[in-house]
UniProtKB/TrEMBL annotation, chains A, B:
<dbReference type="Pfam" id="PF04073">
    <property type="entry name" value="tRNA_edit"/>
</dbReference>
<dbReference type="InterPro" id="IPR004154">
    <property type="entry name" value="Anticodon-bd"/>
</dbReference>
<dbReference type="GO" id="GO:0005829">
    <property type="term" value="C:cytosol"/>
</dbReference>
<dbReference type="GO" id="GO:0005524">
    <property type="term" value="F:ATP binding"/>
</dbReference>
<dbReference type="InterPro" id="IPR004500">
    <property type="entry name" value="Pro-tRNA-synth_IIa_bac-type"/>
</dbReference>
<dbReference type="Pfam" id="PF00587">
    <property type="entry name" value="tRNA-synt_2b"/>
</dbReference>
<dbReference type="InterPro" id="IPR002314">
    <property type="entry name" value="aa-tRNA-synt_IIb"/>
</dbReference>
<comment type="subunit">
    <text>Homodimer.</text>
</comment>
<dbReference type="InterPro" id="IPR007214">
    <property type="entry name" value="YbaK/aa-tRNA-synth-assoc-dom"/>
</dbReference>
<dbReference type="InterPro" id="IPR050062">
    <property type="entry name" value="Pro-tRNA_synthetase"/>
</dbReference>
<dbReference type="GO" id="GO:0002161">
    <property type="term" value="F:aminoacyl-tRNA deacylase activity"/>
</dbReference>
<dbReference type="InterPro" id="IPR045864">
    <property type="entry name" value="aa-tRNA-synth_II/BPL/LPL"/>
</dbReference>
<comment type="similarity">
    <text>Belongs to the class-II aminoacyl-tRNA synthetase family. ProS type 1 subfamily.</text>
</comment>
<dbReference type="InterPro" id="IPR036754">
    <property type="entry name" value="YbaK/aa-tRNA-synt-asso_dom_sf"/>
</dbReference>
<keyword id="KW-0547">Nucleotide-binding</keyword>
<feature type="domain" description="Aminoacyl-transfer RNA synthetases class-II family profile">
    <location>
        <begin position="54"/>
        <end position="464"/>
    </location>
</feature>
<dbReference type="InterPro" id="IPR036621">
    <property type="entry name" value="Anticodon-bd_dom_sf"/>
</dbReference>
């Protein structure tokens, strides 16, 4: 401790909302350089190295080979995959000294596909799994929660390369399992949830979620059958409407009832008997398109589902003037009689007869609007949002909603990138085919921050032994434990020795703050009590062990703690 | 080999000038993504990890603690040290989504000083040494020679923090010594040379040079006393002029003699009896300033020395119109009679009487120009360039010039950065003082490329065991050596097993190309000969060892090769 670079702080810096991050700052693990940009001090670097070690072992066990790809890419590479234009401001664009457009990479599908195009020729060179642990930059609009949502971060990104979908399925499943081992070994509880493919494209994606109120994602979980999904893609059983005759359309005055709630109250009907209109402008293939979305009044629109249904790269709310330009009216809109717009109806709408919809006129609604008879949707799809209490799509039980932090993601990419980069191979049958790709990410800093958030109390951090910067924190009066320290080091124990000229109280406070799993105290008092006091950071009690055998006892305790973590690795849920 | 990502190429890609780089490309170690931007494939990553391991051990032995600092910095940080404006286009400037100016870091003095300002408070927290191994970007105008001069690169950069100059001297010397161990352990011959401090500022710098024709630096070496320096700063003993009476100035016609050579020939005098004028425009503190440099005709101007003498951030040749605007004449310029310019004379000029100088008039020169009597230099300094054959400044022996690649550099920074960032500490005497800093860099990719350049033959690479991707390359017909492979792996030997369905000839070619130090061949033929053929890559002969004891023999050979490298670590030269 007397030689450590970095020092602990007594107070949490101002403006810190996430407790774990506040402790990482106070304990001297990290320091912020700018919004979302951090330096890792020696304690954090040690923990990160342990996380990296676990990642390397588990990727290696999946057959992964480590590579290192560049951070700065020429823009052409991203243009070729369509992501230069298709990605928003989170992709940092810059120009080099010769005015060539470059980007700071957020992910490496393009570069991998380019490598494959040169380095893979035959089916005999497949399957492969390559990965790297590397710096990335994503210019988040709202960096927050410290390392949980940083702009610069270190990522383990892996890419699977296969001959066909069957091979991809196999590697995807293997990595899904490896991710459970990774988070388990790091001591972080995480669940796998079905997820949106987002800017990656491809056919299937899962996210690994650390369930915590600090998360910004919402996850729907069914405790009965185990279905879990990010709200962005969560399906649910929609309440069926009753069967009844279609009645004639009737225009009524509903002045002031410009919300579903007000309308249902005014007409004394359930919200499920109304149609809700949402006006959006979608960017599809670089062009803006007005989208008129219709869901039943008892449901909300899910914008991710809608974007996927219409193939949009981006969505924004329509302005009032844009809404009126297509013949609709804010607060009183309906798909009946509008022209030149893309009408998207939730798949519950066609089966719901005689809905109350807007009349596209201020203060008026239409009774008995029926799909097919009164309007025709261009797209019918599931675009409604699941929420707390929605019925599970698999078993019908009520689902619950939880907040979560995405600590890992896996994507089945298919051939999108390999086709763009000519990453093909000659198959056994002599035919040239595109390599089938998958992509698998884990952010190291975010993972570390989630571990800190999960394992802490009011006094500080409580590291799982597998990712602790040191296994042991040795406290003594001044430097009175030099010999024990040397013995521990000789025995290969990672020990942080507080040899400073500080009070025991200060040293205990810092030990609790830094959070090594085992604290050893050697003082005149402890020797009177029989030797060295050994205390687990997570427990309040302690025991005294004779100084002579202390090293062996400590090594055994470390080994027990390691076994405990391995034994607690969860069974994979939501296996794809 | 059947599972390795990457494959060997039979031909060197077009346009490759550096043989070692060509082999790295052919052997499947690296691939270029853009000018000066490379991906490292699994073989290279393995070698890089070994280099990193050596760096970590040697930095650790110096008391270094590993940290990890960001790649993207806010521009303010660089403005504060004066390097945002003071650094040229090699510093990549960009804007984030909120239009804040950022840079891609080439080095981290600013960030370290900022960390110190927060994390160091007392003299008891000094000295310290922190380091990182991290991605950097320097937008070189002429990226060339593959990894030797890349734009994106991984660097080990270390920063020493001390109470005073004595502490800095101690750490500087320790790291100077550690660098000899590092290059020695990597099998790279390197010499330490005195160097320019460049954009780092500070008082003293050394570069570690790998002497090779592919280098772009020129180093002056004295074989008699051991003096070595980069030409940019190399001193030398200048031939003394004879003592003689000052004679009156005389203007003569010298039409057509607008070079020193032509002038000396025309007047039948040695070049040392002439004065050479060089016209430059220097950027000093953001302003352009016309500089009139004068060296004796038998010497050349050294622009680095000149820039240091006048404190210039940049220098460019003056245009003819700029030269005439100050009253001089290209080809016939002299400091006599010019006005409003900064006259800098080499320190050999004042002691050289009766020189022939230009008359600032086309076709005319002045005889018998004498410093002090006919003109007065604003600055007198050593601004002449040492060259092959110049006399050593220490012992007077003739020096030789060699080309070199800078593989490492160390700088005494002093307090420039700590003062800019308020990185001070409270000394024992209660006084607040700035931390005294040093900075120490080694580029990993360049180091790897130099090792490849040094250790190769026409068939491929010949890795030193310490940085080889694999110690052993195992060749057999098809997969006939599976058992031996398993035994080697179990014994902890790093072995690349060529189990492909290729001819033995192809396998031998690839083994030579990839360059593992030891090749083992197990075939029906080798078994007839008595077992496994063991051959060192660097030797032509081989021996056959029985299959049973083969693993032990191989392990012993590996250990011998490791010892050989450790025994060959050179004695530090040029110790500061």
């Amino acid at each position: 401790m007397s030689g450590l670079f970095g020092r602990t702080l007594r107070e949490v810096p101002a403006g810190i909302e996430v407790a774990g991050h506040g402790l990482l700052l106070r304990a001297g693990f990290v320091r912020q350089l700018a919004a979302g940009i951090f330096s890792y001090l020696p304690l954090a670097k040690r923990s990160l190295d342990k996380v990296s070690g676990i990642l390397r072992e588990e990727m290696g066990a999946c057959g992964g080979q480590e590579v290192s790809m560049p951070v700065v890419h020429p823009a052409e590479v991203w243009e070729r995959s369509g992501r230069y234009e298709g990605t928003g401001a989170e992709l940092v664009r810059l120009r080099d000294r010769r005015d060539r457009a470059m980007v700071l990479a957020m992910t490496h599908e393009e570069v991998v596909a380019g490598l494959v195009a040169e380095k893979v020729g035959s089916y005999q060179q497949l399957p492969r799994l390559v990965y790297q642990i590397q710096t990335k930059f994503r210019d988040d609009a709202r960096p927050r929660a410290g390392l949980i949502r940083a702009r610069e971060f270190t990522m383990k990104d892996a890419y699977s390369l296969d001959r066909n979908e069957t091979g991809l399925d196999r590697q995807y499943r293997a990595i899904h399992r490896a991710y459970f081992r990774i988070f388990g070994r790091c001591g972080l509880p995480a669940v796998s949830v079905g997820a949106d493919v987002g800017i990656m494209g491809g056919s299937l994606a899962h996210e690994f979620m650390y369930l915590s109120p600090v998360g910004e994602d919402t996850i729907l979980l069914c405790d009965t059958c185990g279905y879990t999904a990010n709200r962005q893609v969560a399906r649910f059983r929609k309440p069926q409407a009753g069967v009844e005759e279609q009645r004639p359309v009737e225009k009524i005055s509903t002045s002031g009832a410009n919300t579903i709630e007000a309308l249902a109250r005014l007409l004394e009907i359930p919200e499920s008997r109304t149609a809700k209109a949402v006006f959006l402008v979608a960017t599809v293939g670089g062009e803006e398109r007005f989208v008129f979305a219709v869901v039943r009044g008892d449901m909300d629109l899910n914008e991710t589902k809608l974007a996927n249904a219409v193939g949009a790269d981006g969505l924004r709310p329509a302005r009032a003037d844009e809404i009126r330009a297509v013949g609709a009216e804010p607060g009183y809109g309906s798909p009946v009689g509008v022209a030149g717009v893309l009408v998207v109806a939730d798949d519950a709408v066609p089966g719901s007869p005689n809905l109350v919809a807007g009349a596209n006129q201020d203060g008026f609604h239409l009774l008995n609007v029926n799909h097919a008879r009164d309007f025709e949707a261009d797209v019918i799809a599931d675009v409604a949002a699941a929420r707390e209490g929605s019925a599970c799509p698999e078993c019908g039980a009520q689902m619950r909603a939880e907040r979560g932090v995405e600590v890992g993601n896996i994507f089945k990419l298919g051939t999108r990138y390999s086709e763009a980069f000519g990453a093909g191979y000659l198959d056994r049958d002599g035919e040239r085919k595109p390599v089938v790709m998958g992509s698998y990410g884990i952010g190291l800093g975010r993972l570390l921050a989630c571990i800190a958030e999960e394992h802490r109390d009011e006094d500080g951090l409580i590291w799982p032994i597998s990712v602790a910067p040191y296994a042991v924190h040795l406290v003594s009066a001044d430097d009175g434990a030099d010999r024990l320290y040397e013995e521990l080091i000789s025995a290969g124990v990672e020990v942080l020795y507080d040899d400073r000229r500080e009070s025991l109280g200060t040293k205990f406070k810092d030990a609790d703050l830094i959070g090594a799993p085992i604290r050893l105290t050697l003082t005149t008092r402890s020797i009177e009590d029989g030797g060295v006091e050994m205390k687990l950071r997570r427990e309040t009690g302690s025991r005294v062990v004779p100084v002579e055998g202390a090293v062996a006892v400590v090594k055994q305790r470390i080994s027990d703690l390691e076994d405990e973590i391995l034994a607690s690795i969860p069974v994979p849920t939501n296996e794809p």
